[in-house]
Each structure stands twice: as C-alpha cells, then as structure tokens.
Amino acid sequence: MTPETLQREFDVIVIGAGAVGENVADRVVQGGLTAVLVEAELVGGECSYWACIPSKALLRPGTALHGAQSVPGAAEAVTLTLDAAAVLKRRDYFTANWQDDSQVKWLEGAGIELVRGHGWITEPRTVEVAGLDGNTYELKARHAVVLATGSTPTIPPIDGLADLQVWGTREATSTKDVPERLAVIGGGVAGSELAQAFARLGSDVTLVARSGLLGTFPAEASKLVVAGLRADGVAVRLNTSTESVRENDDGTFTLTLKDQTPDGRTTVTADKVLVSTGRHPALEGLGLESLGFEAQDGQPLKLTTDSTGLVQGLPDEEGQDPWLYAVGDAAGRNFFTHQGKYEARATGDAIAARAKGELSGAPAAWSRYAQTANQHAVPNVVFTDPELAAVGRSVERAKRDGYNVSSVELPIQVSGSSLHSEHYEGWAQLVVDEDRRVLLGATFAGPDVGELLHAATIAVVGEVPLERLWHAVPSFPTVSEVWLRLLEKYGL
Ligand SMILES: Cc1cc2nc3c(=O)[nH]c(=O)nc-3n(C[C@H](O)[C@H](O)[C@H](O)COP(=O)(O)OP(=O)(O)OC[C@H]3O[C@@H](n4cnc5c(N)ncnc54)[C@H](O)[C@@H]3O)c2cc1C
Ligand SMILES: NC(=O)c1ccc[n+]([C@@H]2O[C@H](COP(=O)([O-])OP(=O)(O)OC[C@H]3O[C@@H](n4cnc5c(N)ncnc54)[C@H](O)[C@@H]3O)[C@@H](O)[C@H]2O)c1
User: Fold this and answer.
1) 44 DSSP assignment
2) What range(s) does the Pyridine nucleotide-disulphide oxidoreductase dimerisation domain occupy (predicted)?
3) Among the listed residues 430, 421, 408, 440, the one whose alpha carbon sits nearest the alpha carbon of residue 479
4) Mutation test residue for ligand 2: of 56, 236, 255, 279, the one with most atoms within 8 Å of CB
C-alpha cells in the first residue's frame, strides 16, 4: 500500500494514551467535544504494562505470604516459599501479556478515536503523526492539544553505565526470569519496591542508595522499610555511591561502590543491574522548541502549567482560547497515576468548559476545573512490606510554606495492630496547622497502612477541624485506632 498523508480535524488532540491521556480524552468527549488519542506504543501506557500494575503484581504474593507467616496459627500452614513461575504468570495476566486490545475496546466504547504513531507539534493546534501504519497524519485541533506523554528514566552519570545493557524499571517489571543476583542503583520508590519483590522471588539483592532510603519520607518511617528489606535478605547499602559499572566476560556486572569501609570502596557482582534513579517528563521530539520552549542548563525540558494544566509561556492570541496543556508525568509535578488522572479530569473538564464559553481565565480553587489538590494533598503509597503512606505536607515542607506547624508522632500500637500480626511495627504522624487547627499532612508506616491513607486525604482536603475529627471514631479493633491515639496525644 502506498503511504498516504491523511488530514483530520478534532476538537482536542491528546498525545499519549497512558492512563492520564485516556482520562483527558474521556472527559473531553463527555463534555460534548471530539477527541483523538495519539499513541506510539500501547494504549494504557507505562502504568498498565511496565510500572504500577506489574510491579504491584510482583509484590503482592510476597506480601500475602509474609502476612500469613506473621500470624501464629496461619504460619504453621505455610511450609513453602513463593512460586516464582506462578507469580510471573499472574503478572502476565495483569499486563494482558502486553496486548492493549481491551483498552482499545474501551476507547471505542467511549467514542475516542485512536491514531497509532509518534506525534509532534508542527504549529499551534497542529500535530503531525508518523503513523505505525506507514501513513502520515496531519491533525488539526479546533480547541486544544494536550501533552500526556509521560516520563522517561533519568540515567545517572555513572562511569561505564551508558555503554551497558542494564535494566530500567521496564525490563525489571516485564522480566521472564528471576536473576540469581540483582544490584539495584537508586533508593527511591521504584528501587525499594523492586528490590523487595525480587528478593522475595529468590534473587540475592543489593540495593545501593547514595543517601538514605526513601528520603522524602520521615526517617522514622523509612527506617521501618530498611528493616523490612534487610529481613528479606536485601543488602541495603545506604550513603553509598556507585562509582562505576563494568560488564565482565561472563556477562555479569561489577559495581564499584564508594562507601565508609576502611578502603573506601567495595565491589558487588550481579547478573542484572537495575537503574531506578528517577524520571523526567518525556518532552523531547514533541516540537516544543518550535514554540519557544528550550531545555535550560543541560537539564531536561520542563514546562510550567496552571491549575487547569494550561502550559504557561505561550503568547496570548486575540479572540482565541489558550490551546496547549500538559498533564500527568509530562507536566512534571507528580509522578503518580492517581494524581495524573485527577489532573486529567480537571483539564478535560476545563477544555470542554472553555470551548463552550463556560470558563474564561483561571478557575476558582477547588472547582472541578482546578487541580487544587496538587498544592495540598497528593497521596502516595510505597508498596513495600511494611508499606509507607503519606499525604499532604511534611513538617519541613509546611514550615517552608509559612505555616505555624506542630506535629504528633506515635508507634502504631493498638489492639488492631497486635491482632493484625505478631510483632507488628508501625509509625504514624500528623502534621497540624496550629492557626486553623486542621491537618496539613499525615504519614503512616507499617504493614497494610496504605489502606489507612484515604481517611487522611479526606481530612486534609476537607480541612476538617481537629475538634470535629475527634468525633470520627475508628472501629475497634482496627489499625485505624491509631487515629484516636494520635488525637489523644495531640491533647484532645
Ligand atoms: C516501576 C514503577 C512503578 C510505579 N508504580 C506506581 C504506583 O504503584 N502507583 C502510582 O500511582 N504510580 C506509579 N508509578 C508512576 C506511574 O507509572 C506514572 O505516574 C504514570 O504511568 C503516568 O501516566 P501518564 O499517562 O502521565 O504517562 P504514561 O503512562 O507514561 O503514558 C504516556 C504515553 O504517551 C506515549 N507517548 C509519549 N510520547 C509520545 C509521542 N510523541 N507520540 C505518541 N505517543 C507518545 C507513550 O508511549 C505512553 O504510552 C510507577 C512508576 C514506575 C516507573
Ligand atoms: N508506589 C508508587 O506510587 C510508585 C512506585 C514506583 C515509582 N513511582 C513513581 O515513579 C517515579 C520514578 O521512581 P524512582 O524510584 O525511579 O524515582 P524516585 O525519585 O522515587 O527515586 C530516585 C532515587 O534515585 C536516587 N538517585 C538519583 N540520582 C542518583 C545517582 N546519580 N546515583 C544514585 N542514586 C541516585 C535519588 O536519590 C532517589 O532516591 C517516582 O517519582 C515515583 O513517583 C511511584
């Protein structure tokens, strides 16, 4: 077939059909507009095939097994270790074997068009797509173009690394085999979760963190995860930088680590090396330079968006609505699926409202068009065992933002936690705005605390006065009773 150039017009063009792009398109169509999604790989994006879903599928069996092993009576019934092949098979099920048919079907049902290929902006409201079918598509947007292109791994400048075929999180989450020895560089969320997943699947894991583990959490919380990883046999090397990585003749890798040993250096040999040292917005090759956006100081390009996701820095056009938006990882504010989808809902609704003349200028905070929670209440859970869960401001962040802050902390020791498992260890913290006596943030660490988080998110978003929160009685005997203990310790 001779390749063709096809011209199409839509109300809204969304580049990137990850969870975030899908949600923008859905809201736009629900708002009465037409939308096309442009996707270069799989509809569903990183989260469905290489990130949240497969990583949680790899973690959950180990957490379930450890849960049973931690309860006398059940522990006696557990006589074997994880069946790695069965875990990988279940992971394959959750990623639909890296086929996106069901997501495509969903798009069809939702009335969203799909063009498969790599897209980039050629001029305002115009996107060209090098179609995977060999055709070129020239797409025009009557109202908006949305960048929902996700993020790409940031590769650290470690000697030797650039030349080697090491694992990123994609290779780790989609692996068909469990390596005998795995070295993980990066002590953030992905590194901690995947180190534990592979340790429990049978790998001999070394996790190298240049400072503390999970450094964005309070130290009392993250140290419980360090203990959990070490209990699973992970060699957690804190305050250790990776000087070089080399491939050996037998295909294994040797890392030279700079640490506090008398020699100042040690080496670790592994069959696979996972690099999980953060991500940055995927904004390259999108034609943004033609609009005047340039990367600064050798750093990856970053955009600034307003509360509706509108990209800042483009000239106003007389009589025209603004047209360029960025959401989810591409917007570079939060790298979480749930928060990206929240942004997508607000952005999709704002685009539809602007198109219908129902919204002009900036929307009111907390209206359906504004991503106000981004400033106050971003929840996140680290799915290690024990888990970490946090929402809102930390004490340090609240102080920096000028709040009159106090905090209250406790080990989680309630009837619910004793019943949950033998030797339950947990920690909880509330961050309080003393002027308004409302919560600014909360952190929980411990087995299964992820499910405690939404109560805290509601309290922060609702700005529930502590005196009223006191009347939210946690059921007995749940781990949630830690809320009562925290409020009592606070003085209520
Ligand atoms: C290992 C790992 C585990 C994670 N676990 C969690 C978790 O448990 N919970 C959580 O909330 N978050 C988690 N995250 C973060 C989460 O995966 C991301 O925040 C989320 O995927 C972002 O969604 P998105 O739609 O913005 O981007 P993506 O899912 O990356 O989708 C972007 C899409 O755009 C496409 N694209 C990019 N450029 C173009 C182009 N020029 N033309 C056409 N298509 C293009 C890509 O192919 C991709 O499909 C995890 C991340 C990692 C790495
Ligand atoms: N459960 C979840 O919600 C979940 C799970 C995994 C990933 N994610 C998201 O995916 C994103 C990427 O995850 P991630 O763990 O790669 O990022 P991250 O930002 O959580 O952690 C990156 C880690 O790498 C370290 N690092 C950076 N440069 C380094 C260098 N040169 N040498 C050694 N260490 C270095 C940082 O200090 C940090 O500890 C995160 O922002 C997170 O939001 C979320």
Assistant:
1) B
2) 378-483
3) 421
4) 279
- Spatial contact of 14 and 21, defined as CB atoms under 8 Å apart: yes
Could you tell me the pTM of the whole model?
Answer: 0.98
Q: Which two tokens stand for residue 185?
A: 């560089």
Q: Which residue is it, tokens 């957690």?
A: 236
Give 448 Cα–ligand 2 centroid separation in angstroms: 22
Distance 119 CA to ligand 1 centre (A): 16
ipTM over 0.85: yes
- In the block, which residue shows the tokens 């100042």? 264
CA distance 23 to 340: 9
Considering only CA atoms, give the Rg of the chain. Answer: 24
Band (pLDDT 50/70/90 cuts) for residue 320 is: confident
- Ligand 2 centroid to residue 335 C-alpha, Å: 10
Q: Where are the alpha helices (DSSP H) in 356-439?
A: 373-376, 395-400, 415-420
For 432-465, what is each residue's pLDDT tens digit? 999 999 999 999 999 999 999 999 999 999 999 9
Q: Is the C-beta atom of 60 inside 6 A of ligand 1?
A: no
pLDDT at 259 (0 to 100):
86
Name the CA dihedral angle for 215, 219, 221, 224, rounded to a multiple of 10 degrees: 100
Decide whether any atom of ligand 1 lies within 6 Å of the 137 Cβ: no
Residue 318 banded pLDDT, cuts 50, 70, 90:
confident
The span from the CA of 21 to the CA of 76, in Å, is: 47
State how far the alpha carbon of 488 is from the alpha carbons of 392, 410, 430, 441, 467, in Å.
Answer: 21, 11, 12, 17, 11
Q: Could you read off the pLDDT of 392-413 as tens digits, one per residue?
A: 999 999 999 999 999 999 999 9
Q: How many CB atoms lie within 10 A of CB 492?
A: 12
Q: Which residues pair with 406 in a beta bridge?
A: 432
Mean pLDDT of 128-144: 98
How large a percentage of the chain has pLDDT more than 90?
A: 96
Q: Which atom of ligand 2 is nearest to the CA of 188?
A: 21
Q: Is residue 169 within 6 Å of ligand 1 at its C-beta?
A: yes
Residues with CB under 6 A from ligand 2: 156, 185-191, 193, 210, 215, 276-279, 335-336, 380-383
